[in-house]
Amino acid sequence: MSDNSPLIDLENLENLHGYLGPTPPQGILPQRGERFWVDRPAQLANAVNLLKQSGVVAVDAEFTQVRSRTQGEAVSNIPRLALLQLAIENHCFVVDALRLQDLSPLVEVVGNPAIAVLLHGAGADMRVMAERGLQVVHYYDLEATCRSIFGQHESSLAAMLQRAFGYHLDKSLQRTDWTRRPLPPAMVAYAARDAEVTLALYHWLDLHHHEILQLHETAGKSDQVAHWIEPFLRGNSALSPEMAVSEAKAQGLIHNRAQVAADCRAALVKVKHPMRRNRLLRLIADLSLTQLTGELLLLLQAPTSDERAASARALGRMSIQSAIEPITALLNDPVLDVRKAAQTALRNLLTKDTRQTRPAPARALDGTRSWVVENTQSSNDDDNGWKSRLRSIIDA
């Protein structure tokens, strides 16, 4: 390792919490615009006409869990949409999803490819919206964007508003009963504020982290990757990687292992979304595609923390010894997730496997069987061992 390598305090790795890098200048939250309570079809139509004129719409949903009993008497909780807040510049509409049974006019907004929907933590909100027929086709998940920049422990809406604007977001009503009617004005204001500040956060991210924000754009277009890879990128493959490859071979889609590596290499070029690329890197590690070591080493310097962490984990799992030095540098990464991934990878690369497999029993002449139980090193010895080996590499 070169003399210019950063100093790494191995004893205090676990104590380095949070994001340690620079933060752009704080912005100023815009003044609150007009807020409208929408609980009648005519009001919803007017809101849609105004929302359609904007290129971006921040959306937030408030829902409750409703207990449902099936025919088999099993009880499950089903999310029930109570409010839907949609914010654009100077306007915010709070839609009463309980009184308005028909939300289909909003399809012209959330289902419009020309309009980018802004969500902070898209998963739950998009699922509960889909239950009401509102499929979002073009969106940014700002929580995932912030996670790519600052790490998962710094990506909540409250944490990001504090970082971006020095603003304390009140979350005291987060678990309140959103089905009560009429809603007190304080609850309506609380709901509207989440959508309004999501819009403001989008503009701050676009100003200071435009490139990473664009990587998180989802516009309904799938990457042109090998057919057998796509389920893994969606995160819903019913097969293990080995079984998926075997099935693809049986279908004539794959002819040999070299093609498996070639398909994954091509996917690395085409897939840009950090979450999908993260899943691709996991697939590469699962299949032990060491032919892609060069590509993974380059990703240790990727702009998103997701890719840096995922590539470090993959290289560690594949026991790529040439990755020790560049992964060691990631122990000083500004993002906690990357530092933890580097630490795990280095343990894999530098620690001898002290786990003992159970020996076969020895059979005596009288037919009895016995085992020899060997001592194993403690986890503390194991932890000290990899750190000692890493010190020797750093000091070399």
From TrEMBL:
InterPro entries: 3'-5'_exonuclease_dom, ARM-like, ARM-type_fold, RNase_D-like, RNaseH-like_sf, RNaseH_sf. Residues 35-210 form the 3'-5' exonuclease domain. Residues 354-386 are annotated as: Disordered. This is 3'-5' exonuclease domain-containing protein. It comes from Dictyobacter vulcani. One of its GO terms (biological process) is nucleobase-containing compound metabolic process. One of its GO terms (molecular function) is 3'-5' exonuclease activity. Pfam families: DNA_pol_A_exo1. It comes from the Bacteria.
